[in-house]
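Sequence in, structure out.
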Amino acid sequence: MNVSRLLLILVTLYEVSDAVVFGGWGEWGEWSDCSVTCGYGTIKRSKVWLKEDGTVFNYTYISIVECWTKVPCPIHGSWSVWTAWTPCTVMCGNGTRTRTRLCNSPEPMNFGKPCEGETLEELSCNELTCPDLPLNFNMDVCNDTTFVCHNELQCVEKFLHCDGELDCHDGSDEKECYRYLSMNSNDCVYISSQSLMLTLFGLLFTRTLQYS
């Protein structure tokens, strides 16, 4: 018989014979402390296998049970996402835009830490100098060919409405315009509602001719 094979058989027989140990389980040990100091955790206890001669064998039986500390864990605050930026407060003369966020995702509870940082952010906007108001203005000069500024202290020619340049002191001639961001720059292109309607009508008319 091969020597290495003989040694393998002997070791196997030794392990099997040693695994059969007569005896019984000992008494349960004390429960451990809860694994956490707040919220839910676990506690455990164990008992060992005792041989017939009373000595301990290396079998251990562990029992694990959920525990409640009766102390809720602190929940630390976390910020919500920022809101969208508000429109600029003015059309010219240095206004502000703001956005906000809340400490509610989640909000701090059970003595948790509050959010760190600001709830409000501000940006300067429309810093261009406003056009001057006309002296001795009289509303009688305004007619169907003019645009009355929202402050009613000035009127400008109607073709100046939404032309991309401020003409009213309060900037209202550029306030209610469609704005499109240029693909090649950060400049806004201003298109009046009248121009947009004419453009759409022209495209529709051209397309109708193509299919007629």
